[in-house]
Structures are given as C-alpha cells and as structure tokens.
Amino acid sequence: MEYKNNTPVPLERKIFVAILIVLFFNVILILGGFYLINNRLAPPAEDFVQAQKIAKELVEYNRRLAQTLGVESRSQVHVALSQFSYDIEQADNGEDLNRAILAHGSRTQEKILEEHETRQRETVVALVNQDEGIHDLDGRERLTITVNSEGVQVEPINFLQEETLIDIAENVALGEQSSSLIVDVELDDGRARLMTPYDSVEHIRTLTREIDSLRVTLHELRSQAGYAEMSGPGVVVRIYDAEDGYTNDTIIHDGDVRDTVNELYAAGAKGISVGNQRLVNTSAIRCVGPSILVNDERIAVNPVVIRAVGDPEVLASGLEIIRITLEVSRDLEIEIEKVDNLTLPAY
C-alpha cells in the first residue's frame, strides 16, 4: 500500500528550518573557535577566556538542537553534551580547548542527529502497533516502510491500514538532512518491533569517527607521557651558579636540578624539559665531572633552563622554598618567569 502525501506539514517545516539555522551557527562557531584558539602564538588570558566562552556557546547550540529535535533527554545525547561541557570547563589553555572541540564538536552533533533518526523509527513502530489490522496476525512477517517526499510506501503491500500510513506521514519529519527514512519492522504475533539492518556505509563512518577519537586520545597520552610536544602556559626557571662561584657549594649540581623538578611536579606540572630535554618516566639527571647530563645528553649550564607547563602562579609558588634555600645557603641565583605560552619538545 502506498500513501501519497501531497500536503505540506507546517510543523515539519518549522522544525527543520530551526535545525538549519542551528547548524549554520554551529559552523560559524566552530570556525570562530578555531580562529581564536589556533591563530595566536601566545594568547593573553583574556583571549583564552573569550575562546572558552565561544566553545561554551557551541555546547549550548548543540543543546538547543537536541531540544528542538526532542532528544535532549535521551541518554546518549545527555552523555555527549555533558562530556563536551565538562571538557570545555576543565580546559586550562587553548590546546585543551582545541582537543575538546576536535573530540566532541562534530561527534556530539552527529549523535544528536542519529538519536533523532532513531526516535523517528521508534515513532513509526509505535504507530504500526496501533494498527488494528496487525493484532490478529499469526506468526512472523517482515515489513519495510519507506518514508520520503512522495509519501509512505510499505512492502509487502496491504499489511497496514491507510489511516496508519497517514499518521506516519504526519508524524515523521524528514527535513533537509535526509531524503528518505527506511524502517524495517518485524511483526510477531500481532506486535511490531524495530529491526536494525546492517548498514556497511554507516558502520565505516562509525569506525572512522572512533579512529579519529582514538588518534586524539593517543596524541594526548603521548603528550602527557613526554613523547609528543606539549604547549600551554607555565614557567621558565633559570638556575645560575653563585657569582664568581667555583667551589663545590657554589655551582649547580644534578641534585639541585632534580629537587627543582620534583617541586614542579608536586605543584602540578603537566610536563617538564631540562636544557631542552623532555623528561619522561625513565629520564635521568646526573653529573659527569663538571657536566650535567639529562637523558644521557650534555646540557648547557649557568644557567640551567627548566621549562614546565602548568598553572604559572601555582608552579611559581611551589618553588619558593627551594629558591630561598638555594639562594640563602648556596648563593645560587634562581629566576622564575611566568609565561602565557611555551612549548616543550618531544622526548
């Protein structure tokens, strides 16, 4: 049986005009967000706040899209929006914001549209279950219901009443994102249930999204472990020998560097380099004669330069005790510079 739907449905048009508007603004927000986040080498704090505000607006637009489509309360949409919002709130710098947008921006919107399509399929099944003609059916039967701009078609024909086809046409809105909706339904002893056909194209798309997400996660883990570059605000520490120092107590030793590094980690440093050598869990800092080796590489001394990514205020505060100790008891000089952006090399 085929029902031709030649009458425009006002509600459908209003919903999807709203969707198109929201999607348009999402694109603008993503482009604007990437401009603010990626096109400043050393953005000041107020620029980061502005970029974070734009990222939060992107979350809110996705939330409104979910509300418009009636899927905000569905668990997968709720989880996607919550995780997106949480990662934006927890971002400390532009790199964190960039990661959050890459990981969640398009994925959240896709999840909303997927859940909307699932909701449409569930609506079709619910309307089929209201069809009195299927209640007396014995055994199993499979129906394929196609909803498109021309109306509703059912294969095999004559299983559903015309009133059911009219209800489906009036309650399922396709909009511009999809030219048709195909719903496979199994009838079993008078009850309809949704069947999920295998879609190889959608399966490939899902795997591609998962691979992209894993790549982002892998880069983040490599960065935290020291095997990829890390950027963000932090401090640059320079340790000098005592003026005219030449005795054992007035020059920098490996122990001084290790103590400084430990204090930085204790203060929450996300990554550290010493003499442009990135520290990892197997790194060694040791003296060989008058030289200091880091990762078995000789580094420049006087000053020894230590860079750390983290909260500049907290890191600087965490070095106060060792700074005072080295300056008072050893006459060494320590400079602590707070910076808005620095980059640590990979190991």
From TrEMBL:
Alphabetized Pfam families for the sequence: DUF881
Record InterPro entries: DUF881 (IPR010273)
UniProt KW keywords: Membrane, Transmembrane, Transmembrane helix
Organism: Dethiobacter alkaliphilus AHT 1
Family designation: Belongs to the UPF0749 family.
Domain of life: Bacteria
Listed transmembrane segments: 15-37
Protein's UniProt name: Division initiation protein
